[in-house]
Amino acid sequence: MQKIAIIGVEEGVGREVLNLLAEQGTKPKDVVALEPRSALGNMVSYGEDDELDVLSLDGFDFSKVKLAVFAISAEVAKKYIPHALKAGVKVVDASGASSESGKAPMIVCGINEDKLQEDQNLVSVPTSEVCQMLVPLQAIHKDNKIKRIVVSTYSSTSVYGRSAMDELFNQTRKIFMNDTLVDDQAVFHKQIAFNVIPHMGDFIGEETSSEWSFNTETKQVLGGDVKVHANCAIIPAFIGSAQYVNVECAKDIDVSKVREQMKKIKGVIVFDKQVDGGYVTLHDVQGEDDIYVSRLRQDVSVENGISFWCVADNQRAAGAKNIMNILHFWAK
Q1: Domain enclosing residue 73, as ranges
Q2: Predicted confidence band of residue 39 (pLDDT cuts 50, 70, 90)
Q3: Terminal CA-CA length for the chain
Q4: Directed axis angle between helix 321-331 and helix 12-23, to 10°?
Q5: Half-sphere exposure of 80 (CA within 13 A, CB side)
Q6: Tell me, what CATH number does 174's domain have?
Q7: Structure confidence by residue, pLDDT tens digits, 296-310
Q8: Under 8 Å between Cβ of 171 and 193
């Protein structure tokens, strides 16, 4: 791997990219960890035995690296991505900044990696939740042409970062202690412990930004004629995302054939048994590298329809893995 900078290493997808780099043998000297306004002496673990200094993004000389991953807020990425590109760095934007402007192709490896070019300097990736839905759909879209997708997502508090996970933990502890939750509702506007919140992201009219991203990002990857309706909720879990996905196709589709196709997709595991416990849940996938599909069935409410349940470690299997595949393409 060429020398690489990871911007946003203290939590989320950036943290998981670091983990995968270490697991795949990238040497610490070839990785630069960056955060906005990082304090002197700040460090982050790298693999089992090493630590990296977390350098401040402000004033960083991007000519020192060849590759960069921006797993940071779109606001920060918009400011610093131009500096990286000016220095000749190849950039993977996981912030959403580039996709908003349409300046970079949105890549999901396995579906549209043909848009990747060796002389390309900037690509974007969809959110982890959108990537999780799209990866199992690649063969279906190729053979049957997807017309419409309805997806209901049940995402963990990790999508809002460590502060949200801490809020879930503190609320749960206080409920068992019969204590008040007044001081522990900073991230969420409703109690998250033992509850489900039908709100993920900021509201944009009737939809939230997360629901809107399912629409816009799916169109960027699969094509603009695919219709998407998403319902996004936060559940009281720390890691992972679960989804029920309904797919309507232009051509006749058979669920038995789909099951065999999905089994051949790299990064997807089909565990689908029609018995108690014959499916995969969020608890089963924390720290796993793959997206798990269960409850595959024909959707008889529409012509040419199927539905399935899928779960994944949202930051690792559905986010960092896609980024790593792009980095390997550029580094080969």
Answers
A1: 4-104
A2: confident
A3: 8
A4: 50
A5: 29
A6: 3.30.360.10
A7: 999 999 999 999 999
A8: yes
